[in-house]
Specification:
The protein is an alpha+beta fold and 384 residues long. The protein has helices spanning 3-11, 21-33, 96-115, 137-140, 142-145, 192-205, 255-267, 289-294, 306-319, 334-340, 365-383, and strands spanning 37-44, 47-54, 64-69, 85-87, 90-92, 124-129, 152-154, 162-166, 168-177, 210-213, 217-220, 222-230, 240-249, 276-281, 299-300, 325-328, 345-347, 362-364. The protein has 2 domains: 3-166 and 298-383, Aminopeptidase; 168-293, Alpha-Beta Plaits (2-Layer Sandwich). It has 11 helices and 18 strands. The chain binds zinc ion.
Length: 384
Amino acid sequence: MTPLEEVKKLIAIPSVTGEEEEIARYLESRFQQLGCKTRLYEAAKNRYNIYAEYPGRDKSRPGVLFHGHMDTVPPYGMPNPYSPDVNNGRVWGRGSVDQKAGIAAVISAFEDYLSSSRTPEKSIAFIGVIDEESEHRGSMAMKEMGIDADFGIVTEPTDLKFGIGCKGTAPVLLSVKGRAAHGCRPWLGVNAVVAGIKLAEKIMSEELPIYTIEGIGDVQGSYNLGKIEGGNAYNIVADRCAIWFDRRLTPGETQAGVVEDIRKAADTMGFSDELKIDIEIARPDWNWPPIKERGLLPAITDMSRPEVSGLKKLCDEVLGFESRVYFTDGYNEMDFLINDLGINTIQFGPGDSARCHTDDEYLDIEQLQKCTDVYKKIISFFCE
Ligand SMILES: [Zn+2]
């Protein structure tokens, strides 16, 4: 099948987070058709990661591992989310960019490479994971699955740019409890909203560490105060306040460090002893303790390794232009490959990530083709 046919097939299989079984089983059979050994792994109840490997002569770890998430966000208001519509060099559909195109490019690259009936020196591997859009249970399970490789490629959309790292993200909930009193005698109460705002201002005014990346420049973490709730009525001293932050982290920063910094800031505020402040990692869709505990960490490719510059050169040759090297303010699952598995990894995939999660999600077909060509070369580069 062509890469376009592959992606249309994948779009037509709905796979909203939590409902990845059908697409996992489809990928299992598709990779088997290509001659790969496959394994389904139950990463959450009735939800399966799919691992596929084409064995090389060398039976140690694979030369390259392509990683893609199978789940998508819901269709929301998207018309015809699962009937891929091709028009003007684009294909529309839920998951077209995020990120069935990346998976389709992998399948096509495998098919093309394996049709030559060469036996590679090193094995070629793919992992499709569940739950990327929520609790990351699929990528969390890679460690238990014993996943390993010389190098990793995260196939999320990069607009064919060369992603060498991502920020981490800590969803922080600050809960403040004070004491209510009548609004005519505020001195008898302890106002939780006022304290919450003061503490928020304090932590947001603190200078966050700067991380310098050679060839890119300085990057810095950030705080976004996304939501604030509190109080009961205008004439009652507010006895509670909840503030949600999206704290982004640069390499070297940790989730525990973020919580610790907020705790320290709170201790310097001179608040009344009656005020109770809780700081926790909380996201409305996170109910699974292991992900709260681990968090979503920053990650960066080890650029000192010679294969990285070789890989960049190869990408540029295939693309016919110099692909930009970048570090994203966003987050992606290269975190798990780099930080949990110790696999040096880049992110490179087809499509414009600005289209992700929108009602106007479409993929540029030319990028899909070019990315497939790059993946084919990547297979030869790492596995021959
Ligand atoms: Zn994605």
